[in-house]
Amino acid sequence: MLRRIDTEMLSSMVKEHQCKQAKKRDVQENKRREACTAASELTQALVDHLNVGVAQAYLNQKKLDAEAKQLHTNATNFSKQTQQWVNLVDSFSNALKELGDVENWAKTIEADIRTITTVLEMVYKESQEGSSE
């Protein structure tokens, strides 16, 4: 009989131990699920936070690209306009040179005409003097 009581008591203790172990497993499983859920929420929050930064960086990059394109267009237009000014100044410089050449030519012609006039006057005076003699 003592053995039977010991067996029943032992059996009862085993059942009690198994119940406690099952409760501990349930508590641990609940805590594991909560930890997994918390970790998942934290990961999602971190990803969302990083995505905001990435999205802002993307928008900034798009703005920079648009501004760089506009700057390139402006620089190209400025270069074309500068080349037009250079061409205009070159044309003006050439026109001034031509005027200088024309002025030099006119002075040469004027000097030649004065020489001819002087010679003609001398010839006329000599012919007048020769006819009065």
From TrEMBL:
Gene Ontology CC: one annotated term? BLOC-1 complex
The highest taxon in the source lineage is Eukaryota
**Which Pfam family, an example, fits this chain?**
GCN5L1
What's a GO biological-process term for it? endosomal transport
Q: Which family does it belong to?
A: Belongs to the BLOC1S1 family.
* Protein name, entry field: Biogenesis of lysosome-related organelles complex 1 subunit 1
Q: Which organism is it from?
A: Exocentrus adspersus
